Amino acid sequence: MTQNIAVLAGDGIGPEIVNEAIKVLNVLKQEGLSIDLHEGLVGGAAYDETGSPLPEATLALAKQADAILLGAVGGYKWESLDISVRPEKGLLGLRSALNLFANLRPAILYPQLADASTLKPDVVAGLDLMIVRELTGGIYFGQPRGIRTLDDGEQQGFNTLIYRESEIERIGRVAFEIARKRGSRVCSVDKANVLECTELWRNVMTRIAADYPDVELTHMYVDNAAMQLVRAPKQFDVMVTTNMFGDILSDCASMLTGSIGMLPSASLDANRKGMYEPIHGSAPDIAGENKANPLATILSAAMMLRYTLGEADRADRIEQAVSRVLDQGLRTADIFSEGMTLVSTSEMGDAVVAAL
Ligand SMILES: NC(=O)C1=CN([C@@H]2O[C@H](COP(=O)(O)OP(=O)(O)OC[C@H]3O[C@@H](n4cnc5c(N)ncnc54)[C@H](O)[C@@H]3O)[C@@H](O)[C@H]2O)C=CC1
Ligand SMILES: CC(C)CC(=O)C(=O)O
Ligand SMILES: [Mg+2]
């Protein structure tokens, strides 16, 4: 049966990087992968065209699709309108509407990129950690929120960090299940010494750990976790954490692998329907220059094949093709080092296609 993929390229470098992932998917399609790609508008591009960053047509397309491939949203032009990423709008609206609560962000060091990592080669060699980030709750969604004017005329900004036990439990179980297939260790990251909401997070993680006696659970405060990530990242197997902590820690972890342009992600609902996107944003500072790294998006397409489309072998092949291209010494600017060959976004995509 043909599976339908909604392709939402978005803004900034979004269309450039998604274009390269589409090239890769089209090669697989030509050799028998049964998928149809359907493009839709999201973010600033959608706002300019329709007046909404998440038009009804896009939401319907995403809901009907078997999987979604997304580039990135946002940019200077739309920042003041806060339209592209806020809850109920744009990207966060999409994640919420589709109940994509489980965000998997693997940080894997390709050995060829050891010299691009911000850490010393012996500290990162063999790095393979999975950040499991809660994606539809926490402070990015909590109510009340806003900016209000106080009686004395001063403005006050406020947000709410809020989690129900059931929200914590379901993301915790995702992390434990993933750990079972990996190194059997979960580190739950919170700020339970200061924030009651994450004290509950810690309690729930401890409670459900009893159902996974084969998995070791540890807890770590987020400030220490940030430090440990850049000190000795190989101590971690699976990290599970809240929406905002996971957002920040995954950007941090990306640099251990050489660049934020290397980290893919899967955002899954309870049935493993998913949206797949690089962890980075729309990079307006380099948009339109054909120099963004498309590998995170290509690797996100591989995750889509593995997690939602049931095509693990083809996912493996994409990952192997990426590895081969790195073996050839091809590097976009963000992962470039002396002696390597500097390539553009589209040249990198072409090279992955050739390696396939
Ligand atoms: N998932 C999404 O759609 C996200 C959207 N955003 C939005 O993106 C816009 C820019 O946000 P920033 O904070 O600048 O974060 P960003 O991730 O877009 O960029 C941060 C830095 O990383 C670089 N970078 C990012 N992706 C790259 C790639 N593939 N290859 C090479 N270099 C890359 C950029 O050039 C920039 O210097 C904002 O409007 C923000 O709201 C930010 C994060 C995620
Ligand atoms: C709208 C933001 C929460 C997007 C982001 O930074 C991310 O998902 O990594
Ligand atoms: Mg982020």
UniProtKB/TrEMBL annotation:
Q: Which residues are NAD(+)-binding? A: 75-88, 281-293
Pfam families named among the record's database cross-references: Iso_dh
**Molecular function via GO:** 3-isopropylmalate dehydrogenase activity; magnesium ion binding; NAD binding
Q: Which cofactor does it need?
A: Mg(2+); Mn(2+)
Write out the catalysed reaction.
Answer: (2R,3S)-3-isopropylmalate + NAD(+) = 4-methyl-2-oxopentanoate + CO2 + NADH
Q: How is the cofactor bound?
A: Binds 1 Mg(2+) or Mn(2+) ion per subunit.
Q: Which residues participate in Mg(2+) binding?
A: D223, D247, D251
Q: Its Gene Ontology biological processes?
A: L-leucine biosynthetic process
The answer on whether this UniProt entry bears the keyword Cytoplasm reads yes
Detail which positions bind substrate: R95, R105, R133, D223
Entry-linked InterPro entries: IsoCit/isopropylmalate_DH_CS (IPR019818), IsoPropMal-DH-like_dom (IPR024084), Isopropylmalate_DH (IPR004429)
Where it sits in the cell: the answer is:
Cytoplasm
Pathway-wise, it operates in: Amino-acid biosynthesis; L-leucine biosynthesis; L-leucine from 3-methyl-2-oxobutanoate: step 3/4
Keywords tagged on the record:
Amino-acid biosynthesis, Branched-chain amino acid biosynthesis, Cytoplasm, Leucine biosynthesis, Magnesium, Manganese, Metal-binding, NAD, Oxidoreductase
A cellular component annotation (GO) from this entry: cytosol
Positions of the Isopropylmalate dehydrogenase-like domain: 4-352
What EC number(s) would the UniProt record show? Answer: 1.1.1.85
Q: What does this protein do?
A: Catalyzes the oxidation of 3-carboxy-2-hydroxy-4-methylpentanoate (3-isopropylmalate) to 3-carboxy-4-methyl-2-oxopentanoate. The product decarboxylates to 4-methyl-2 oxopentanoate.
Q: Quaternary structure?
A: Homodimer.
What protein is this chain from? 3-isopropylmalate dehydrogenase
